[in-house]
Structures are given as C-alpha cells and as structure tokens.
Specification:
By secondary structure, this protein is mostly helical. It is built from 22 helices and 7 strands. A hairpin with a 3-residue loop joins strand 1 and strand 2. 55% of the residues lie in helices and 7% in strands.
Length: 465
C-alpha cells in the first residue's frame, strides 16, 4: 500500500510493509498539492498510519521474544546500615558459602594420600634423578584421588608442566608442588575473604588490621614481641600493603592484589622457627625490622610528643636530606598542626627505602612537582638542586654547576619531551631513583658523582681504613 501526500515544501511517500512503515522523503519541492488531500488531512493520515504500524510491529517483537518479560534479577543492592537483619543474613550466607568452598579443598591428610598415589604410579622407564608420570597414569591417579582432585588433573595442567621429557612425562614433584600451591592459594583466598565484611572483594584498613592482629599468634618469629607493641607492629605491617597496593589512597586493597604480590609470602615466612637472621633483617614484617623502624621514629622524636616536625625528620638516615625537600614533604603529606604521625612516617620510610619501585617514584614525584603540573621542568630541577649546592658550600666543597647536572639528568632520563620529565619518563628510563637521589640527598648526589671511583674500589677489593 502506498499513500502520497505533501505540504508546502516536501512530498512524502508512506510505504507500508508487513513489518512496519517507513517514511521516505521523495522530492523536495515547492508544490502545494499533488492530489485532493489537504495538508492537514495528510498530517493526520501520517500520524494514524505511523501509530498503527508502529504498535503492530512492537507487538510482534514482544511475542517473538518472551524472555523480555522474564529477565532474571542480576543486581542486588547492598543492605543499608540500619538494615541489621539484612546485613546479618548476608554475612551468614557468605560465611556458609566460604565454609563450603573450604570443604572442597584438599586437607593435609588428603594431600599425603595423594602423594602416596603419585609415588606408586610413576611411569617407566624409571629415572634416577626424579620420578615422572605419563598422561595415562596421570588420569588413573585422578580417578583414584577422588572428586576433590579433579580440578588439578586436567590436560591443561599436564601440558603446563611439560619440561621436554622424550616420553612426554611430567615430574611428580612439580605436579605435587603445583597442587600444594593451588590449595594454599584457595585457602588463603578464603581466609582473607572472611575478613571482607563488605563482601566486595577488597579489605579496608581496619579489615587488614584485624587479619594481621589475629595472625600474630600463629607466627613463631613474633613470639618475642610484647603485647604492648602489637598495635605498632600491626600498623607497620598494614602500611606496606596500603602503600604499594593502594597508590590512589582509596583506603582499601583488593584481595586479588594481595594474593598476587609477595607480601603475604613474606608475612607467612615468619612461621619458620629457624628463619635465618639475614632474611629477618630484609623482611619488612619481621620483628627486628618492625622494631628498627619504630626505634628510628622514637630516636627522631626529640621532644617526645609522639610526632615529628620538619627539624626532627631532617635527621632521617644520614641526615643529608635537603631542607627544601623536607618543606615539600610536609606540604604534600598528611600532617597534624605541622607535625607527622607514625603512619605518615611509615609511608615516607617505604618510599625512601624502595625508591626504585613505581609506587615510591609516584610518591616522590608528587613532592618534586612543585607546580602540580604533572611534569618536572628546568625550574623544578634547579629549585631542588640549589639546596644541594648550598649543602656542598656548607661542607667546604666546590658546588657543581647546575647546567652540568641538568644535562646529565635529561641524558639519563631521555624524556619524550626534551624540556619536561613526566612520571612515565621516570618509570620507563629505569634511572628514576638515581635522578631523585641527586636532587634531594647530598649523600645520594655524592654517590652518583663518585660512582666510577667507588666501582674501581670495589673491583680492587676492600680498601684499608
């Protein structure tokens, strides 16, 4: 069916199909009428036909797909603070779910039984170095191991553990270590989730504090800590998680990120009763390390008010950090009446002791960016290096010209823009920690200036004192 109508500027054709109607502009013209239908009647006819065929088509679409009227609910709002019953119900449901997932994992007795099965069913020909198993025996052990072992005995796992054996076998020890690691991963995931009271896959600062506080009695290496120090230890441990895993300072850390990093391994390493002293000294979570950091804080606090001012913090490390840098630290970091508390101090220590890490470079770059423009220009570099020159003069040394240092910095960083250094440039060049040390620490600048002589002394052996 085709109906022709017009107004003073357009001529339209309504072409009616069984699936609907479409309006086509036929001719742009100035004619007033091409038939006896008046413009008003034509508009009325257009509206009637459009409504008729639009409703018919819509009705057919609804009949063609009845699922539109039965979409399942996929979003559930979190209960509000005053909805106590809903919150308790949600917590109990999550706890039940996590307990059920925990029961699906292999326990210690089942892991021992699995090792016995693997030991009995290693494949020929035998190797003196290690026991190997082929794919047929691999599937046979999976059957004997029961339903809990099913997820660990798949073709994908077997392929991942291939190491070039001419008979296509895999190492039994490698397979068992893989299973142990997966079981530990899931157990830890469930254990962390029990502290996720919000139930959104992340831990807030208070959740992390509760987790570590309850973990302390299970770590033999922390048995010597006095209970009065536990709160400071928890604060020290939690700050490392938040500093490196929450760079945007949202106050929470994803459980997935906690499992992916090595911090939890370092923390659980304290279960080893015979952990060597050198490993304890390098482990941030060990008792000696925590006592060292807290002891430094107490030593810097000259007025014993529990806070640090700029003059007190200037004594950090070798005491060679510049005053300009100290000023910027207190401008950018959280302070209370111009003084720094222990948490802010821990962030500062983590940044200074790990200057090569991206999170530390981000922390220090924000301090160096005095104009908050997202880049460092020649003015910023000169602003900080003048303090280094002043320190050199104070110690009776000849100041190094800024132009020489500026050229070395830009040659070192190789920024995308030859006049600006961005955070991405620092991360990409691999020398960001060296550049920052040159600008904020006289000792760092001296080390850089004498790097060749120090390298020669290292090659020649220890120097006599």
């Amino acid at each position: 069916m085709k109906i022709l109508f017009s107004n003073k500027s357009h001529v339209f054709t309504i072409i009616c199909h069984k699936n609907g109607c479409y309006l086509e502009q036929a001719i742009r013209t100035d004619v007033c009428l091409i038939s006896d239908i008046s413009p008003q009647d034509a508009l009325n006819t257009e509206s009637e036909l459009f409504s008729k065929y639009y409703l018919e088509r819509k009705k057919k679409e609804e009949q063609a797909d009845i699922t539109y009227s039965a979409i399942p609910q996929f979003y559930f709002k979190l209960p509000k603070d005053d909805e106590i019953l809903s919150q308790k119900l949600r917590e109990e449901a999550r706890a039940t779910f996590l307990q059920r997932r925990g029961r699906q994992l292999l326990n210690n007795n089942e892991l021992k039984a699995l090792w016995v099965l693997l030991d009995k069913h290693h494949s020929q020909p035998h190797s003196e170095e290690e026991q190997l198993i082929n794919y047929e025996d691999f599937l046979h052990v999976a059957t004997l191991g029961g339903p809990k072992c099913k997820n660990y005995f798949t073709a994908a796992v077997f392929a991942k553990l291939q190491h070039g054996d001419p008979y296509g076998r895999i190492s039994i020890m490698a397979l068992f270590n893989y299973i142990m690691r997966k079981v530990w991963y899931h157990q830890t995931r469930i254990g962390l989730s029990l502290y996720d009271f919000v139930g959104q896959g992340y831990l807030r600062e208070v959740d992390l504090e509760n987790y570590i506080l309850e973990l302390i009695p299970t770590l033999p290496q922390l048995d010597g800590l006095e209970k009065s120090f536990h709160s400071f230890y928890v604060c020290t441990a939690v700050r490392k998680f938040l500093f490196f895993l929450d760079p945007l300072r949202t106050g929470r850390v994803r459980i997935q990120d906690i499992l992916a990093c090595s911090f939890l391994d370092d923390l659980l390493e304290l279960r080893d009763v015979e952990l060597p002293k050198d490993l304890q000294d390098t482990n941030w979570f060990s008792a000696p390390s925590a006592l060292r950091v807290y002891g430094q804080y107490l030593n810097l606090d000259k007025d014993h008010n529990g806070m640090l001012n700029k003059e007190e913090l200037a004594g950090y490390g070798t005491g060679t950090l510049t005053k300009v840098f100290m000023e910027r630290v207190f401008q950018e970091c959280l302070t209370y009446d111009g003084e720094m508390d222990y948490k802010t101090y821990l962030d500062f220590v983590l940044a200074m002791e790990n200057r090569h890490e991206p999170q530390s470079l981000q922390y220090l770059f924000r301090i160096l960016d005095i104009n908050n423009k997202g880049y460092l220009d020649v003015f910023c570099l000169n602003y900080f290096f003048r303090a280094i020159q002043e320190q050199m003069t104070f110690h009776g040394q000849e100041p190094v010209p800024f132009e020489d240092v500026k050229d070395e910095i830009f040659d070192m960083v190789r920024p995308a823009d030859p006049y600006r250094i961005t955070l991405q440039d620092l991360l990409s060049c691999g020398q960001g920690d060296t550049m920052i040390s040159i600008l904020i620490d006289l000792n760092g600048f001296w080390t850089y200036e004498n790097r060749e002589a120090m390298a020669a002394d290292t090659r020649d052996g220890p120097a006599e004192v």
